[in-house]
Amino acid sequence: MTAPVDPAHAFADFLACLEEADEYGAIEVATGLLDAGVAAERVLLDLVAPAQVEVGERWARNEWSVAQEHAATHISERVVAAIAGYADPRPTRGRIVVACMDGEWHALPPRLVAEVLRLRGWQVTFLGASVPAAHLVSYLHRHDAHAVALACALPMRLPYAHRMIEACRRSDVPVVVGGRGFGVDGRWARRLGVAWAADAPGAADLVADERRLRRVPPAELSHLADHEYAGLVKRRGELIDSAVADLRVRVPSVGEYTSTQWDATIGDLGYIVDSLAAAVYVDDPELFTDFVSWLATILASRGVPTAAVASTLGHYGHALRDFPRAGRFVALGVAATVASGVVRH
Amino acid sequence: MAAADVRGFDPGDGRISTPSAGRAPARSVGAPAVLPPLAPDGTSPEPARPEPAWSEVVEHFREGLIICDSDGVVRHVSPVAARLLPEVTPGRRLAAAGLAVLTGVTDPDGFGHHGRRLRIRRVALSGSRSCLYVEDVTDSVSRADALLAERARSAFLAVVGEKLGNPLHPDRAAAAVIRLTVPTLAEVAVLVLAPRSGRARWWRATRADHESPTVDSGVLPAAALPPAIAEGLSGVEPHAVDWLVEQAVEAGWLPGLTTSEVTARVVSLPGRDAPAGVLLVARRTRWYDEADLDLVRAFAARAGAALTTAVLYRNQAEVADTLQASLVPVEPPEVPGVQWGTAYRPAQASLRIGGDFYGAHRLADGGAVFFLGDVSGKGVEAAVFTGQLRQCLQALHRVESHPGRLVKLLNDALLETTQAHGQGRFATLVLGTVRPHRDGGLSLTMAGGGHLPPLVLRNSGEVETVPLRGMLIGVVPDPRVGEVTVRLAVGETCLLYSDGVTEARGGRRGDEQFGQDRLVHAVTACHRMPAPALAERVEQVTCDWLGHGDHDDIAVLALRATGPGGRPRRHLHSVPAVPGTAERNPRP
């Protein structure tokens, strides 16, 4: 009998394997822990999950390229498959369908949830990343599910997430959601009127309690009556165009941008509008201020000054004179951007 | 005056009949048989105008009138008041009538009295006198009650319509039906579905302390069903309800309830020919009257429709699934030295199949033949065509493994079929063979049939476009087929993709094509990625570009030279397929 091993001690080795894109090495580290008697759930949650958090942070700090991040994530997925194969639990309970929201590609966290549920005896179907609502619904019509677990990592996807939740509800299947997209404390899940779990064990406890799963307070979305969300969605293209025009006037050097740089810039301008729309959707300026602070940090690590973000927000604020709620959020966003710049310098 | 008499006076149209002065004279004490003056100071009205006969006017009020003096002694009772409150006697104290509502706090909802519903309004008059206005609100209240009950019924049926419209899975639909019955229709309800091969499935909802009922379910042999249920399943609604309760209690279906305290009913749920099932409702509180039964039947009609639809859907979907399964691309087989990566996203998400296809077959010499292509048309028809194409290739690769000649053979086969069916179907594809080298590298020989040129990710980080041309397949008898051979060193990757990637429309306005340049840029610096991660990345950047817009079918096939050496492969072999992950690929 080997002495219990702490997954935290294997962390550095595991991360080194991810960095080297060494699939076999990473699997060896994980199966080594299992051989030493560490429970599969702990290996998933105390080794693979924190490593993935670190991968994301390295990307955010521009230490790792997108390609490296993707490779590491792929390897983590292989490790999860290896752990699941090693434990090989027999399903004794009902079916749970686990999926990423449409447009959501962060598949590893829900995959971990899926495996934890499987380890606890559920028959789990993992539908993968970016599952279209139509596909999920037709799956639910074909296979009776005890519950659906949906993941959303990006708050800007919340309006789509809400549609997907409603689609599952209409099929009379209870929904549990998770992921950072719903806020660290799940506050936006409450706003959308859906059960929320903080982590994989929380999700496992929740699906085991059908009464709790079904007893969710109704969505609080009366603020949508002001049509600001719909207006923002409708004006998305126009807003981005005007922001581009504004950039050309304000920062003449953008004239030398390559097409790739333009794609990235237009992408960011779009994300700002999407986050604003999502913030208006759940009526919480914090969603937007969190996003712009994060964006300012990411861009700063890639050489874009914070002031650039602030002035683009200023432009949006001006363009959204007729949107009192969105306008207020943008003003708070400007303040948050400036603050995030101050903290760093 | 008895209550019956009071009721007899009512004309029944909501108005109160006004008695003739002779039959029911106003009873007053004190001098004249007229009302006390209404003017507070007792000054007489202008003599110029004739005074209206107040008593006569007041007698025709629908409200009855009781006037008390400052000592609480009744001074006047109008005929209507006398009829409604016969206990009130002029000359005696109001309290002596023995009705607390006359002197206490008045209830805006009124109170029951001699079978009528009365509402009292108390008004203070001058000189500490007071006046009680008494109104008979029996009919308006009962009309309001009936309206509320009707509203509750329609609200319930509206919820039923909403909840039952969507679950298309038979078990879900059954669970939704049974959950709706409690508490509106029953305290305990049991739904028994029409037996299939001698076994009947049942669901039961039991009222719990919480809002949502407790639901359980199970299976019973059809022969063990209580007679009333079996009868209901044959379409007959049992009339005698006493033995129904006994049967249900005996069957153990009504936990916590005894025969004496329960009333129960059974209704059948209409199906296509025979009933889809039967619903047993039971409760302690109230007997099921005709209105209740009408509601249960209206519910049963909707529930029956929902269950029938769900069963119909299941039967159709079983057929569709079987056909679909044969049309979904099959994952490439394991080939030494090759790591495959695939991504597949059909335009119609709910269909899971489309006009793009890919695949690979092992060759006897240790290599493999692989292909990725796109057929004309969309949806099911296109998917069926891809199925034919893949079957053709499955057979043909056994007789011809040279890519150029294999594509031409395929062209001949397609021409023959499309001509036979009189429909112009064509396809574009890249088809190649992969053969491992001793050094771990791969040699790819590819033939092009009018498809987009593959990309090669070199170890240097460079992304090359493979010069591969050719004509559409299935159009002309002897098409020009391009052919090219590419060497992959260990770690290098070849990427095949469909036009759903490059022609994805998105960007600022949602009308700009993704294009080859963006694709090349997206995979630049991805040469160290494992093939599955690369395929997923292409799928992801394409979908990100699309936003939430519509798209064509998207297919990606990547092959990476992993080399034979390096790490031992035993670890990979120790990773068995995880149950459930099979459904992950192909992705919608």
TrEMBL record, chain A:
Domain B12-binding intervals: 93-218
Pfam family, one: B12-binding
UniProt keyword annotations, A-Z: Cobalt, Metal-binding
Annotated TM spans: none
InterPro entries: Cbl-bd_cap, Cobalamin-bd, Cobalamin-bd_sf, Met_Synthase/Corrinoid, Meth_synthase_dom
Full protein name: Cobalamin-dependent protein
Organism: Micromonospora antibiotica
Automatic annotation (TrEMBL), chain B:
Coiled coil residues, start to end: none
Keyword list, A-Z: Hydrolase
Pfam families named in the record: SpoIIE
Region (Disordered): 1-51, 563-588
Domain spans labelled PPM-type phosphatase: 338-561
Superkingdom of the organism of origin: Bacteria
UniProt-recorded name of the protein: Serine/threonine-protein phosphatase
